[in-house]
Design a protein that fits this description.
- It is found in: Endoplasmic reticulum membrane; Microsome membrane.
- This is (Mediterranean fruit fly) hypothetical protein.
- Its main location: endoplasmic reticulum.
- The chain has one domain: Cytochrome P450 (Cytochrome p450), CATH 1.10.630.
- Helix content is 63%, strand content 0%.
- Helix 6 packs across helix 9, helix 9 crosses helix 11 and helix 10 runs antiparallel to helix 11.
């Protein structure tokens, strides 16, 4: 693996010679996993360019600032829970990793998937539980990822997916059902779902449901 550190070379690669450095090296073979294969960072060549052209107009500074209000709500709920736990001046131990994991979960649910959850109150909500199961790279999940990354031919022969289909289908249904409901009832909310609805309406590209859902996954990965 090479690491480019010369600023002039970097500038040349991402500007003048960018056409030669479009594609990212895949972490594993995602051809049989449409939600992973549809992420912007995984798409290749013209397909990547088309999706980038679709998404670029909707990611304006104003729309990103509007999305910040959803994050603020999650921060306030987190602080409210902390104030409640320390009411009356009582001491309260906080496991920071779990605390911020729940905060990240609520922010991702709200901004990327258009779902309002409070993981401090409902600690075993479905979104949190399934999200943690997917992100838990231990045991069997770690073994599957290792085989897919180091031995893609073995993965193809065994015919397994890195991520459990039942869990990824949950997120797919969540996004598609939310988009459908909003379009039918003309509901708007400053989140990723709304941006994708607008992008889909304005583009001449015929993106599949999997491609659209994958962008929510891509957005959530960057938030986490």
């Amino acid at each position: 693996m090479f690491s480019v550190q010369n600023p002039e070379y970097i500038k040349k690669m991402i500007v003048k010679d960018f056409d030669f450095f479009v594609n990212h090296a895949p972490f594993f073979n995602s051809e049989d996993d449409p939600l992973v294969n549809g992420m912007l960072t995984v798409m290749k060549d013209q397909r990547w360019k088309n999706m980038r052209n679709t998404l670029t107009p909707i990611f304006t500074a104003a729309k990103m600032r509007a999305m910040f209000s959803l994050m603020t709500e999650c921060f306030n709920e987190s602080l409210d829970r902390l104030r409640e736990a320390t009411k009356g001046g009582t001491s309260h131990d906080v496991e920071l990793k779990g605390w911020f994991t729940r905060l990240s979960n609520d922010i991702i649910a709200s901004t990327a998937f258009g779902l309002k959850v409070n993981s401090y109150v409902d600690q075993n909500n479905e979104f949190y539980s399934i999200g943690q199961a997917i992100a838990n790279f231990r045991g069997k999940q770690m073994l599957k990822f290792f085989i897919a990354n180091a031995m893609p031919l073995v993965q193809k022969i065994l015919g397994f997916k890195v991520f459990d289909a039942e869990k990824t289908d949950y997120f797919k249904r969540l996004v598609i059902d939310t988009m459908k409901y909003r379009q039918e009832h003309k509901i708007q909310r400053p989140d990723m779902i709304q941006l994708l609805i607008e992008a889909r309406e304005e583009t001449d590209q015929n993106w599949s449901d999997d491609d659209i859902v994958a962008q929510c996954e891509f957005h959530s990965n960057h938030l986490s």
